[in-house]
Fold:
Amino acid sequence: MQSLPVFLALTGRPVILTGAGEAADAKRRLLERAGAIVVGDGDMDARIAIVADGDEAMVARLKARGVLVNATDRPALCDFTLPAIVDRDPVLIAIGTGGASAGLAAALRQRLEALLPGHLGDLARALFAARGDVRRIWTDAGARRRAIGNALAPGGAIDPLGGDPDVQAWLAKATDAASGEVYVLRLRSADPDDLTLRDARMLAMADRVFHAADVPDAILDRARADAVRVAADGPPRDRGDGLIVWITV
Structure:
């Protein structure tokens, strides 16, 4: 991973935009849609800039002031790049290629636009509104995470790609999630694309990942970033609480 994807809250904040023409107009629409105040390069309060014409001298002047710069079609000059966006407000999916190919990012966005239903935003808002009920039903953070993960999984009670997920109906039938579970993941190859959907889902939900020493990093990277990773000869005897994934070759 050559860059860290982040979502910037730009509402009411100045962002410098320089250049003219279609590229600058497109960037202006994007910034205004995000709530930014579009300003010129003379605004000394701005900390982010888009140089829509790739002017190297302008890029150098702004960087000398400590401004983070995106230079259109000049990836080598960029401190950050602008992704292709799938917008299901408040759900946002950003697709970046590090400036390698805007066309590829756009093609992937079009595929995802066709795949992801319009009700994703409604589902996100319903889950936000239900946070109190979710915490009341599952007081343990690990159990809560597993319950939500199972409900959102393919075929789950609130599968986001399902017909019309109903959060309140799911909560009305909810029971506490099982703890101390061990899931055995036997690798078919070193390629993470060969993981089954269930394998990938269990890795994403795991509290602890025990793995043989020769399991590739590309597989381990599919686990939650904050999951504990332990190189071991076998799964733990003491399961404790939470979901454990044991990966073996």
